[in-house]
Structure formats: structure tokens, C-alpha cells
Design goal:
406 residues; alpha+beta
Length: 406
């Protein structure tokens, strides 16, 4: 008896996906709920489990194939349990054996793509003939650091007597190129960014924040905070709390445009941009006004781990009324972030850098951070945008007042 392995149902906003990696080969035994294949969409990675115990039959959708909900990926033979190393294709009245597919693990696949290598050039050492990351690294270590082309002898050309031809010597460096398809996530990011540029009237306003008060408070209570709550105290929780305070004072910053209507949100779901191996993702801290800083830090840490592992659920990255992005972790001193539609504004954090400032007539060095607010001018006036950013600045420069809500 054969059981079909089908693509799971996608949410309404997702139409199709791409088969990224098979974790079993045809003929291998599988157990119920064991992960069979990863499917990448433009938002999240889906794991398709085995529907029952048995032996994996023919794989109908190989890696790289585009699939839709309900499409058959493969079959599982639960009746005989007979192992088979290859799928059988019938034609002209006789059986033809199709070689088993070579399985490349995701980490190894990324290295192969980065260095333009073919899986055929790698000796697999993983279980069931899988190509592991270590296998690719061994091949890379054996390659020369800089590929070169040897110079070839060219036919002699007549030259003017005043400028005799010099012999061609040395090596000529290669100018390699490689073409790889965009990941679905990267393609979706590109689509949304272009959409934001075309549909919104984006402006940016800037300010700078003296981070000394936040840094002093963090330094004073960090050890006790971590011991009490078992999570590190970062800067992002301070910024989220400051943003919520600003959004309460200026609700239009927390609103969005839908057709010719303005939707004012009575809740504060703050998106935090997180870097992942697949690209930038924005998990949502929901009801940020109702939770404490320890819970905010726990959620951020959990989302960061999930982003690295590629296990963020669709509901964890959907929605949001405002976004914060931190280019400072990569060294950015100043930037103009792009709105994450349908939101109407986004706050950009940047690198903390000591700069001379004037306090009470004296020049002193302070740890300063530039902050940028990009906003949709169709909905938000410059006055509201500037005052919102000033509110965030004042909250961060006097965090005790912010936390006491005075």
C-alpha cells in the first residue's frame, strides 16, 4: 500500500514554494512524523513530515522544483517495507532503473553555491551518501587560494623599432562569475522594498541620542537583571519601550493606509529586524506595551535563535504596526531605512560612537547614536514625525522617567 506525501496547505498570502532539501533517499526507511523535506516560501521554511512508517519511494519533486499546496512530492510504501535503492520507471515494456538522487545538506548547499562547485566534485561522507558541510570544506581546502590562468604564447606582431615588444610573462588573474537564482525570501524582500518605494511618499528625519544614561543604567543592573530573569539586558528593550511611548503620543505613526482608509491600531506590535542566513526577517513583539523588558529580551533572543535555524513560524513574522532595525550591529553610522508595508514608519538605530558634545557650555565626550525615522508622508506630517523622534530621544536620555511613566 502506497501513501502519498503531499505539500501542506499554505496560508492565503503564499501561493507556492521551492523544494530546498530532501532528508531521505528513495529506498530508505522512514518513520511517522520524521522530517522528509524542506520547502521554502517567500516568508518561512516549511518542514514536511512522513505521514506514516514505511519506505520512501520515488521522489517526484526534486530539489529546486516549484510546488503548490496539495501537490504530490513522493510516496511511501508502507506494505512491503522492501528497500529499494532506485526508483523504477516503466517504458517500452521494460523497467529502467533511475539512479538515486544525490542528497546535499543545506549548509553544504550554501557552500557549493557560494564557491560555484558541483556536488559531483564532492565525496560524500554522511549517512546514506549525504554531502555534509565538512565534505565541501575539504574540497575547498585542496583548491588553490587564487585561481589563475597561465599566459599563452601569442603570434609575434610587427612593432615599431622604437618600442620593441616585451615578452608576455607571469600569470593572468581570472575574472570569475557565477549566476545563482535568488532565494524566495530575497525575491520577496526585493518585491516589497520596490513596492514601498513606488506606493509610499517616503521621507526621513534624523536626531541623535546621548546613550550615556541607558548605558549607565544597563551597567548598574545588568548582572542582577540576568541573574533574576535568566536573559541578557540589551539595548533593544529600551528602544521598544521608548517607541511605544512615542506611538502612544502620536497614534498616526502607528497607523497604516489601506486603499483610501487610514487604520489606527489600538495595540503595539513592534517588528524587530533580524539577520538570518536566508536574509532579513522581521519577527513581531506583540503587545509590547503590556510586557516587561525581561519578556521583551526573552522574545528577541528566542526569535534570533529561530531565525538562525530557519524555524520561524509564519505567525511570528506576520503583521506588526511599527518596525525597528539596527544597522549599528554591522557598523552603520547613519542610514535611511525603508518602510515595511503596510506600516507607515520605521526607526533605524545605528552605531554608538563617542563624539564631542556641548553640555552647560563645556565640550565633553559622550556615547552618541544617530537615529532615523523614515515615514510615509501621505499619512504622517513632518511635525508628527519630528516630535515622535524627539519623544524617543527624550525617553532614552531619561530612562528612569520612561520606566516610571512620568
Amino acid at each position: 500500500m502506497k501513501t502519498e506525501v503531499k505539500v501542506p496547505g499554505f496560508p492565503e498570502s503564499i501561493t507556492d514554494g521551492t523544494v530546498v532539501a530532501w532528508h531521505k533517499k528513495p529506498g530508505e526507511a522512514v518513520k511517522r512524523d520524521e522530517k522528509l523535506v524542506d520547502i521554502e516560501t517567500d516568508k518561512v521554511m516549511f518542514e514536511v513530515p512522513a505521514p506514516e512508517d514505511g519506505t520512501l519511494g520515488e521522489i517526484l519533486q526534486p530539489e529546486g522544483a516549484t510546488v503548490v499546496a496539495g501537490q504530490v512530492l513522493a510516496s511511501i510504501d508502507a506494505a512491503t517495507g522492501k528497500p529499494a535503492s532506485a526508483a523504477v520507471a516503466r517504458g517500452n515494456g521494460e523497467d529502467k532503473t533511475v539512479p538515486a538522487q544525490k542528497i546535499v545538506m543545506p549548509a553544504a548547499r550554501r557552500l557549493l553555491d557560494e564557491h560555484g562547485l558541483s556536488p559531483d566534485a564532492v565525496q560524500a561522507s554522511g549517512k546514506g551518501g549525504r554531502i555534509l558541510k565538512e565534505d565541501v570544506l575539504r574540497v575547498l581546502e585542496q583548491k588553490p587560494a587564487v585561481p589563475v590562468l597561465r599566459a599563452v604564447e601569442m603570434p609575434a606582431r610587427p612593432e615599431p623599432a622604437a618600442a620593441p615588444a616585451a615578452p608576455v610573462t607571469g600569470d593572468i588573474e581570472q575574472r570569475p562569475e557565477r549566476r545563482v537564482p535568488m532565494t524566495r525570501l530575497r525575491a520577496r524582500i526585493a518585491e516589497r522594498l520596490v513596492e514601498a518605494q513606488h506606493t509610499a511618499a517616503i521621507l526621513s528625519t534624523f536626531n541623535e541620542v546621548n546613550m550615556q544614561p541607558v548605558m549607565a543604567l544597563r551597567q548598574r543592573y545588568r548582572e542582577r537583571f540576568e541573574k533574576e530573569h535568566e536573559v541578557k539586558l540589551g539595548f533593544m528593550s529600551f528602544f521598544i519601550k521608548a517607541v511605544v511611548e512615542g506611538l502612544k503620543k502620536f497614534p498616526v505613526i502607528n497607523a497604516s493606509v489601506e486603499d483610501k482608509d487610514v487604520i489606527y491600531h489600538g495595540y503595539y506590535d513592534i517588528g524587530v529586524a533580524v539577520s538570518s542566513p536566508r536574509g532579513l526577517v522581521v519577527p513581531i513583539i506583540r503587545d509590547a506595551d503590556r510586557i516587561g523588558m525581561a519578556e521583551i529580551e526573552r522574545r528577541i533572543a528566542a526569535y534570533a535563535d529561530k531565525a538562525k535555524a530557519g524555524t520561524l513560524a509564519l505567525e511570528e513574522i506576520s503583521g506588526g504596526t511599527f518596525t525597528i532595525t539596527n544597522g549599528g550591529v554591522f557598523g552603520s553610522l547613519l542610514s535611511t531605512p525603508i518602510i515595511n508595508p503596510p506600516q507607515s514608519a520605521i526607526l533605524g538605530m545605528h552605531k554608538i560612537q563617542e563624539r564631542p558634545v556641548v553640555e552647560e557650555g563645556a565640550i565633553v565626550a559622550r556615547p552618541m547614536m544617530y537615529v532615523a525615522l523614515s515615514y510615509d508622508h501621505r499619512l504622517i506630517d513632518g511635525r508628527d514625525a519630528v516630535q515622535f523622534l524627539v519623544t524617543v530621544k527624550e525617553a532614552l536620555e531619561d530612562p528612569a522617567r520612561m520606566l516610571l511613566e512620568v
